[in-house]
């Protein structure tokens, strides 16, 4: 960290503050007005319409190639080999060609690995046109277009791997287009024409804190992963609706409202006080039968719309909401709140529909949905008649498909909820909610699970007292550590610049430390590791970004105005390697969108910095 301060001049830190701070910030943001405007109107249409009748859940393809001022490199190679395959075997093989980067740069830039699979398919059909996969691969190479501006070389290795090396002229053209289309500092990535890309509108459900409780480190993962996925989707031109499914309904509010009434609470209390009240109310609920009865009565009043009770409930929600907004402001998150209460009036109608379709059945007094495979049922109404998480999730699913008209719904929660969402998805498919009347591909559903945040002791990350770590305190600590390190050096920054730099570096470090890990695995939270300027950290990325910003700051508008493809000269291997890496951004974003793994973009960004 100390060497970072010594290495980056004050001017560069100022430049860094004006530009993106992590890998996710290279992606464009969507129109919030469009997002909020369309979603707010949904309040007027809460009653269900007729369900779709067909019930076959088919996942929509998300395989459109991407473009950054031109086709992505992988898409270019795939297109060329598809034409060659048609020339060699007209109409005989329908195959999604496997195009990858060469693991050994000495062999080439990209590789087509499909000859073996195609040969096996021909052999199965009794076609003996080729003696082995290698002879087929050699025929494909001969069928490639003779264009010096496309490939510098194409050769066959091993049993049939085809390695291609791009011509410098192609790389120069693509780099020039990328620079031209990104002159404002933002990546421009768009879908190329592809009829299989059926996704137009996506709902991403993430963050989802609980009212009357502070956001903790677990919410960090959902919030950051969800936001990154949203930016990637928007980057490729998909309308993306961010929804915050906050916990703002249920029996806990009966406890809280009753306890607050007993304590004659002040109108203006802090979230920490509210949390304390919540814990106290839970103890009373578990130990005091009279209090429990009054709490249950308060829930009934709340659900019945009692003016006084609803007013107090709204006050509690607003206090929590203000606290949440402070954190979202820090993390640069814009998300539309759609809490459990929003879907409450839909639940009876949705459950009635499931009963009519014989999907939900009575079992031991509860309403349950049994899956075809063995395992516990999804309880969607408790034996006492009360609703639960499953009730709300089913209603939310229906509303997002039928009112929001989502083509794809993504839920970002911990991996422990995988079975729950699997059951909800299964119920939605059997009910026919996912199929569209116009014959379009069915609504796609994904649960984006993530692992735990662990402490350096190998246990779940908690405070010394054993409580979950408040997210606000965690972010503040990261900024404080950056401020202390910067202040201890002669950085040449004034107090305000120190604060700005500390905020940028601290928040970026926390975000990136989470994102660069595979979301499916647990990761160890370490301030020292995330603030290290060496290795795959945000601090290293910021250092490289500052160097690049210093170079760009010396370029004038006239320099860019006269910039032509002839100015891109890739005479050195390192220049070619950098050009290749820059042009792989569309493939990195495509990988993120297809696999819903933000770490793919982080891997790319780190690779770009190392190559630079």
TrEMBL record:
Which residues are in coiled coils?
A: none
Q: Which GO terms describe its biological process?
A: arginyl-tRNA aminoacylation; post-embryonic development; reproductive structure development
**One GO CC annotation:** cytoplasm
Does Ion transport show up as a keyword for this record?
Answer: no
Q: Which reaction does it catalyse?
A: tRNA(Arg) + L-arginine + ATP = L-arginyl-tRNA(Arg) + AMP + diphosphate
Keywords from the UniProt entry: Aminoacyl-tRNA synthetase, ATP-binding, Ligase, Nucleotide-binding, Protein biosynthesis
Signal peptide residues are none
Q: What InterPro entries does the entry give?
A: aa-tRNA-synth_I_CS (IPR001412), Arg-tRNA-ligase (IPR001278), Arg-tRNA-synth_N (IPR005148), Arg-tRNA-synth_N_sf (IPR036695), ArgRS_core (IPR035684), DALR_anticod-bd (IPR008909), Rossmann-like_a/b/a_fold (IPR014729), tRNAsynth_Ia_anticodon-bd (IPR009080)
Catalytic class of the enzyme: ligase
Enumerate the CDD domains for this protein. ArgRS_core (cd00671)
Start and end of every Arginyl tRNA synthetase N-terminal domain? Answer: 75-166
> Per the database record, which ranges form the DALR anticodon binding domain?
541-612
Task: Name the protein family.
Answer: Belongs to the class-I aminoacyl-tRNA synthetase family.
Q: Protein name, please?
A: arginine--tRNA ligase
Say which species the protein is native to.
Answer: Mantoniella antarctica
